[in-house]
Design goal:
The structure holds two protein chains of two kinds. By secondary structure, chain A is mostly helical. Chain A is 75% helix and 0% strand. Chain A is globular and about 85 Å long. The two termini of chain B are 37 Å apart. The chains are: A mainly alpha, B mainly alpha.
C-alpha cells in the first residue's frame, strides 16, 4: 500500500510538469503577445516591455526560469493584468469561493443522489424508479448554463426569494442557487450509478445470505448492500472532481462569483500568462491529489482491491 | 509477428458474428438490408421495445432534419436568412416575444421571437443546431479514428508497447483537459469564425478519444487469443490486417454504444466553450453561443435563452436515451454504468 502511494506520488510530479509545459508551450507557440493589441506599440516601448518580462531571452531560458521558480519556490510570478498582485495571492483569495460552492454542491449531490438511487434500486420498475431515473436523465441533459439562468428567472426575478448573483460570504442565501445549479448533474450521475451498483449487489449471494439469516431489511440495505453498491460512486469521485472544476467555471460566470474559474476565464481572455499557468497548475495538482485519495479510499472500502 | 504473404483473406474461417460486423452495418439500418442474421436484428428488435430509446431516436431524427433543411425553408417561406437583420426598423428594441410581429400583433413569422438585432430566433436556433450537431458528430468521428486505432494497436501488440501507450493515456486522463482546451482556444483565437470552428474540432477531437481507446483495448485483449485470430495469423495475414479487418469489426458493439454517448458529451462541451466565448463566433451560432447571448437579457427577453436552451436539453436528453437504449440492446452485459 505504501509503495503504491509512493509510486503514484512519483508519477504525479512528471504529470504536473507535463501540464505546465503544455500550457506554457501553447502560450508561447501562439501568435502575438500579451501586450499586443490592435494598435502597434512604438519600438522603444516594445523593447522595454520585452526586457522587463524577460521575453528578449531565448525560449529555453524563459522556460527554465519559469519552471525553476515554480518548483523551487512555488512562485508563479505576478499577474500581468491585476497589477501588483502575485498569482499566489489571487489563487488563495479566490480558492475559498470555489471550494465552498464545489464542496457544498458535491455533498448535496451525494445525499440526494444516493437516496434517490437506492430507492430506485430497491423498488425497481416501480413508479419511483421511473420517476427518479427520468429526472436523473433530465439532470444529465440540461446544461448548467441553461439551468442556472432558469433558476434565477424563477426564484429571483419572478418570486423574489433568493438573490440572483454575487458573493455574500460563506453561509449566505447567495450560495443556494449556484450550489443547486452545480450539483444537478452530479446528483443525476450519482443516482444512476447508485442504482446500477445497488441492483447488482442486491442480486448477489451475500445479500441472500444476509436475508436468509434473518436480518431486518433495514440492516440488509444499510450495512450490506449500500457498502458494495456505492463502489461505483466512489470511483466516480475522480472524474466528478474534474467536471466540478469545469462546472464551477460556468457557475461562477453566471452568478458573478469571484472564484478560481472566473479568474481563469479572465486570465485566458486577457492572455495573462503567469495567472493562466498558475491556475492550470493549481487545478492539476488538486485533481491529481484527489484522484490519489480516491484510489486509497477505494482500497480501504473494498477489501478485494489490492495495489502492488 | 506474421510475415507478409499473399493470402486470400476469404479463405480464412470467419465466425458468423464477425462476417456481419464486417458489413459495417449501423443498428438502425440493420433491419433493412441484413436479413436472417440474428445479432443486429435482435438488437434492433430490443431497441424498438424500449419506448424511451425510440422516443430518443425520433426526436434526434426530427431535430437533425429540421436543422438541416429548416433555414432554407424559412428563407423560402418568409424570405429571411438566419443572419438577416431588418434594416427598415429604426426602433431601439427589436426583440419581439414568440408569435408576435413588430407591433405586438399575432404573427407566424417568428415562432421563437427575435433577438436583440431583430434576427429570427427560430432560424438562428435551427442554424445553431446544424453547428452543434456537426461539431458533435465530427469530433466523435475524430475520437473514433484516434481512439479505435490507438486502443486496438495497444491491445493487440501488448507487452511493453501496451504498457507505455496506456501509461500515456493515464497521464492524459488525469489532466484537466477542458482547462487546457480553453487555453488552446483563447491563445490561438482565430480571426475568422471558420478558423475558430476548425480549432474547436481539433481541440475536442484530440481530447475525447481516451475512453474509446481504453474500451477498444479491453475488447481486443479479450479477442486476440481466440481461434479466428490464431487462424488468421497461421495463414499469414499481416498484423495491420488482423487488427483492422478481424479485431476492430468485432469491437463494433461497444464502440457504437460509446460513440452514441460521446456525441452529447461533446455537444455539451462545445456549448460550454461557446457559452464562455471561446467556441463558435458570430455570425455563426451554436446553441451554446445563443444561450450566452440570451443570458445577458434574461430579465427582459427570457425567450432568447429559453428556446436555444430547451432545444439543446431536449436533443441531449434524446441522444442520451438513445445511447442507453443501444447499450441495453447491443450488449445486455454492459448495463452497469
Amino acid at each position: 500500500m505504501l509503495r503504491f502511494i509512493i509510486r503514484r506520488l512519483l508519477i504525479t510530479i512528471p504529470t504536473i510538469l507535463v501540464v505546465i509545459t503544455i500550457t506554457w508551450g501553447l502560450i508561447k507557440l501562439a501568435p502575438g503577445n500579451f501586450y499586443s493589441s490592435e494598435r502597434k506599440l512604438p519600438a522603444g516601448i516594445e523593447k522595454n516591455i520585452r526586457e522587463k518580462y524577460g521575453l528578449d531571452k531565448p525560449w529555453y531560458q524563459q522556460y527554465g526560469k519559469t519552471m525553476w521558480s515554480i518548483f523551487r519556490h512555488f512562485d508563479f510570478g505576478t499577474s500581468l493584468r491585476f497589477e501588483g498582485q502575485s498569482v499566489n495571492t489571487i489563487i488563495w483569495r479566490s480558492l475559498p469561493v470555489s471550494a465552498a460552492v464545489g464542496i457544498l454542491a458535491y455533498l448535496l449531490a451525494l445525499i440526494i443522489g444516493i437516496t434517490a438511487g437506492s430507492i430506485a434500486a430497491l423498488k425497481q420498475n416501480s413508479r419511483w424508479d421511473y420517476a427518479s431515473m427520468a429526472l436523473a436523465m433530465l439532470g444529465i441533459s440540461i446544461p448548467n448554463f441553461v439551468l442556472g439562468p432558469i433558476l434565477v428567472l424563477v426564484f429571483s426575478l419572478s418570486l423574489y426569494w433568493l438573490p440572483p448573483s454575487r458573493w455574500g460570504g460563506f453561509p449566505s442565501r447567495n450560495l443556494i442557487l449556484p450550489v443547486l445549479t452545480l450539483s444537478a448533474i452530479y446528483m443525476a450521475y450519482i443516482a444512476r450509478l447508485t442504482r446500477a451498483g445497488m441492483l447488482e449487489v442486491l442480486r448477489s449471494d451475500y445479500i441472500r445470505t444476509a436475508r436468509a439469516k434473518g436480518l431486518s431489511e433495514k440492516d440488509v440495505v444499510i450495512r450490506h448492500a449500500l457498502r458494495g453498491g456505492l463502489m461505483p460512486v466512489i470511483s466516480y469521485t475522480g472524474p466528478a472532481l474534474a467536471f466540478l472544476l469545469t462546472g464551477t467555471v460556468v457557475v461562477e460566470r453566471i452568478f458573478a462569483l469571484p472564484g478560481l474559474g472566473n479568474y481563469f476565464i479572465q486570465a485566458s481572455l486577457n492572455r495573462d500568462e503567469p495567472l493562466i499557468i498558475g491556475i492550470v497548475a493549481f487545478i492539476a495538482i488538486t485533481l491529481l491529489l484527489m484522484n490519489l485519495l480516491v484510489d486509497i479510499a477505494y482500497a480501504f472500502l473494498d477489501p478485494r482491491v489490492r495495489y502492488q | 509477428m506474421s510475415t507478409e504473404k499473399k493470402t486470400d483473406p476469404e479463405l480464412i474461417h470467419i465466425p458468423p458474428e464477425m462476417a456481419i460486423a464486417e458489413a459495417d452495418v449501423r443498428p438502425e439500418e440493420a433491419g433493412e438490408f441484413i436479413r436472417g442474421t440474428s445479432l443486429w436484428r435482435d438488437a434492433w428488435r430490443r431497441l424498438l421495445k424500449n419506448k424511451l430509446a425510440v422516443f430518443g431516436l425520433i426526436v434526434v431524427v426530427i431535430v437533425t432534419i429540421t436543422s438541416i433543411i429548416g433555414p432554407a425553408v424559412i428563407k423560402r417561406v418568409f424570405g429571411f436568412a438566419p443572419d438577416y437583420i431588418p434594416t427598415d426598423d429604426v426602433r431601439l428594441i427589436r426583440s419581439f416575444p414568440p408569435f408576435r410581429g413588430p407591433n405586438g400583433e399575432f404573427s407566424w413569422a417568428h415562432p421563437m421571437g427575435t433577438d436583440n438585432a431583430g434576427r429570427d430566433q427560430f432560424a438562428r436556433v435551427l442554424q445553431g443546431g446544424q453547428i452543434s450537431l456537426f461539431v458533435g458528430i465530427i469530433a466523435t468521428l475524430v475520437s473514433l479514428l484516434i481512439g479505435v486505432s490507438y486502443g486496438a494497436i495497444a491491445g493487440y501488440f501488448g507487452g511493453r508497447l501496451d504498457n507505455w501507450m496506456m501509461r500515456i493515456v493515464d497521464v492524459l486522463y488525469s489532466l484537466p483537459y477542458v482547462i487546457v482546451v480553453i487555453v488552446l482556444l483563447s491563445v490561438f483565437r482565430s480571426q475568422t469564425p471558420r478558423g475558430q470552428l476548425i480549432l474547436l474540432f481539433i481541440a475536442l477531437g484530440a481530447v475525447s478519444w481516451l475512453t474509446m481507446a481504453r474500451i477498444v483495448r479491453g475488447q481486443v485483449l479479450s479477442l486476440k487469443n481466440q481461434e479466428f485470430v490464431l487462424a488468421a495469423r497461421a495463414t499469414g495475414v499481416s498484423s495491420g490486417r488482423i487488427i483492422f479487418r478481424h479485431l476492430v469489426p468485432n469491437t463494433l458493439g461497444p464502440v457504437i454504444v460509446y460513440a452514441t454517448l460521446t456525441i452529447p458529451q461533446i455537444m455539451l462541451t462545445e456549448a460550454f466553450l461557446s457559452f464562455l466565448g471561446f467556441g463558435v463566433q458570430a455570425p455563426l451560432a451554436s446553441w451554446g453561443s445563443l444561450a450566452a447571448e440570451g443570458i445577458q437579457n434574461i430579465a427582459i427577453f427570457p425567450w432568447q435563452l429559453i428556446f436555444p436552451g430547451v432545444t439543446m436539453a431536449l436533443t441531449l436528453f434524446s441522444l442520451n436515451f438513445l445511447g442507453d437504449g443501444l447499450r441495453d440492446a447491443l450488449d445486455p452485459q454492459m448495463r452497469t454504468v
